[in-house]
Each structure stands twice: as structure tokens, then as C-alpha cells.
Amino acid sequence: MPEIELSAGTIEYTDTGGGVGETVVLVHGLAFDGSVWDALVADLREDFRVVVPVLPLGSHRRPMRPSADLSAQGVADLLAEFLERLDLREVTLVQNDAGTAQLLPGVRDERIARLVLTSCEALDNYPPGIQGRTLLAASRVPGGLFLLLQSFRVPFLASMRSSLGGMTAHGIPYERVRRWYRPLLTDRAIRRDLARFLRSTQKDTYLRAAERLRHFDRPALVAWGAEDRMMPPETGRSLAELLPQGRYVEIPEAGTLVPLDNPAALAHELRRFIEGND
Prior knowledge:
eight-stranded mixed beta sheet
């Protein structure tokens, strides 16, 4: 994977190449890497330039500098810096699971032409569900995060509804879980980065972001997993209502991990949205 040196550290990313259609940037969530988008990248790459950064949210392989701001806003600022350094313009920015992309409108949104939010942290659902609350609690107990992460070594525990199994409608192949959690299980510096992110949690983060979203004057699509338990569809509908140009759709047979559960339906909605077909 190509890499780029940013203020917080080195970021890996995927780039299908310039000169092909418009640019779509896909942003993953907590303790996932860009591979959560693999099926969508394969679907879109013939028509668009697709760029997928690996943000320092737990599945990254290069630890950040000790001085890096790894709060939610700090990670969003790192995403904005990434767009600037690659000189990506008129971007369709697509977010899943984490709420990172919501923290750019009204702050550093000059490179965003369209915003797409798919089953993600929003409004007062932060940290989201039992999974988010458990991670936060573990991060605040000495050794708690390390102990909790050991559960991902056991396929049965990782697949429980209170864990990753509650984020998907169809289950997750365990080889993907191993890929996502290997950095956290093998590298103390990566665990340090995740702990810093979790410990910086402020419950009103996305309520404050929502006030700025009310003034976002560009097209926005909210594409929610119809079977999402962690990020309830009513949160998605409320999010779409506050965006001036927001449109809400539900993706069938999908939980939180929409790009993993039903990438074909999500790709279809993205194409309609980018082409301006309501």
C-alpha cells in the first residue's frame, strides 16, 4: 500500500488512480481498516477514482507520534490533511461506522462536494450501542482494553451480538477479524493509539457536529442499514432531516457494516447520488 507522511504520523491508503471519473473517498470505522470497503472498491473503480485511507483507529499498522491529537476531531483533521496532501478536490466523502466525516462540515469542508453517511455514530448515539460503551469503559480501567481485546482471539466470542456479530446482518468471516485486530493484539503502540482515541470521548461530540450539519449546503445522502441494531435507523432518519439537502435511504439486508453486508445495493445508491438521480 502507498503511504503518506502527515503531521500525526504515516498513513497507508489505497488509490485506484486518477483520471477516471469523480473522486470517492471511503472512510472506515473503529478497529477496521480499508478492507471493509473492498467489495465496494471493486464495484466502483471502473467509473470513479476511489481512495481509501487507513486512519489511526485501531487497525492501522503504523503507530502515530506520541504527540498526535487522536481525539475524534483530531482524527477528522487528519482526514482533512490527507485530502489536502493528495490534492483531492470535489470529493464524494463516504463514512461508515465512525462519525469522523461529520466533523469536517463547517470546519474543513472545502474539498467536499458531497457527503454520504452510512450507519455511523451520530447525534446522541455516541459511544454507540453496547459495543461502544464496553470499549469506552475498558479503556478507562488499567489493563482493561488489553483484556477485552483478547476476546477477538476466539471466533465464538467475536461473533457474539454484543461484539462484532451485532454489527452485521450476515456475519463476518473470521479471517477478516484476524486481519482487523492483529495490530491491536500484537503491537502495544497501536493499542496506545486506540486507548488515546477512546479516552478522549466527549458524549456531545456529534450533537455539536449536528449544529454545523444544519448549514451544510451541498448534497448529502444518508444510507442506513435496515437491520442495524447498533446504529438504529431512526438515528439515520433524524440525521437526514437536519441536512438541508439530505436524502435518506435504507440498505436492505445490512447491519452497521453496510459495505460488508450489501455492497452492491450501496454502490447502486452511490452511483444514483453522484449522478444526481433521485
